[in-house]
Amino acid sequence: MKHLHLDKIKSYESPIKVVKIFSENEIKMIQELYSTLPERVFNKKQNIRKKVWIQNYNKDLDKLYFDKLKNLLGDFKMDTLKSDKDEDLYGIFHESYAPLKLHVDTGFSEESIIFKQIVTPLSSFGETIIFKNRWYGKSTTFTIDENELKAKSQPGINDKSCQHLGDENFDVDLYNKYLKHENIQNLKGLKIDIVYKWKLGETLIMDRSHIHCSSCNIKEKKLGLTTFTKK
Prior knowledge:
alpha+beta, 29% strand, 19% helix
């Protein structure tokens, strides 16, 4: 799959930003919302827990969150995540003790004009590695594992691909510092744009076409909220 509206998508792209749009009290409200939401995924083996922001658990917080994003981004629509009632979900909470692998969150519709990805740390611990390299196909996890690459594509599940690879070897020092959970050969041709060190109260804004992953430096629980948008 390739997105059909590449010119439009690229016209909305901009440099990565870190902003502070939520007060300390508002961050606490979002953390409290997380604690009350039903569990969607709990992988005991990998120690990963996921919940989604379902509307109407806290209508005032729903409005506050949407309005803050609109003030920052202008007009947008929520993307990718839907409830059983076909309502927009406002984001996905991801709690883990393990790093996320190399991937991109470009969605599953070739018609969508993908826009920004918003990451709000809800723990003071975590690092996100964002690469300069971009991807304009379906949401994809990048791998050189032959067995993973043979897996059939499924609706709503990331593709597997090695087509992100370039020729230049990845910097060994950066690999040892941030990316030892990856095979270094899976990073050939990639260049780091920023390493974002999580801070409570901050929000990371980036284009959804950026290839990214967590760093390997996870020594305690990491909890964040990610929201996907489109035009």
